[in-house]
């Protein structure tokens, strides 16, 4: 498992962990989580993208890939994204509004 912690220019910090199955001819990503934590002034404290391991009970619900928007108990099904797409989102595309809606 690879685990890394980074910071972006908005004062947010994020980390991710990736689990790879190396038993195949080409390594295969079988699970990951990417979590970005926002500054204390932001009403949403974090955003996490999860790809659960195969045979996790979320797979039965069609939610193996999902997002947690600020609460571990709240899960939204999402279209799968690659680790590079999520990393790019965290570094370049996720903009923090100056005046968030209430």
Architecture overview:
This protein has two helices and six strands, in the order ββββαββα. Strand 1 and strand 2 form a beta hairpin. The termini are far apart. It is globular, with a radius of gyration of 15 Å. It is α+β, with helices and mostly antiparallel strands. It has one domain (2-93). Strands 1-2-3-4-5-6 form a six-stranded antiparallel β-sheet, with helices on one face.
Entry keywords:
single chain, 102 residues, alpha+beta, 6 strands, 15% helix
Q: Can you describe this structure in just a few lines?
A:
Helices cover about 15% and strands about 35% of the residues. It has about 100 residues and is of the alpha+beta class. The protein has one domain.
Shape: globular
Q: What fraction of residues sit in β-strands?
A: 35-45%
The total beta strand count reads 6
Give the biggest beta sheet. Answer: 6 strands, antiparallel
Mean pLDDT, all residues: 84
Class per helix and strand makeup: alpha+beta
List the helices and strands and how they pair.
Elements: E1 2-7, E2 13-21, E3 28-37, E4 46-51, H1 57-60, E5 65-68, E6 76-77, H2 83-93
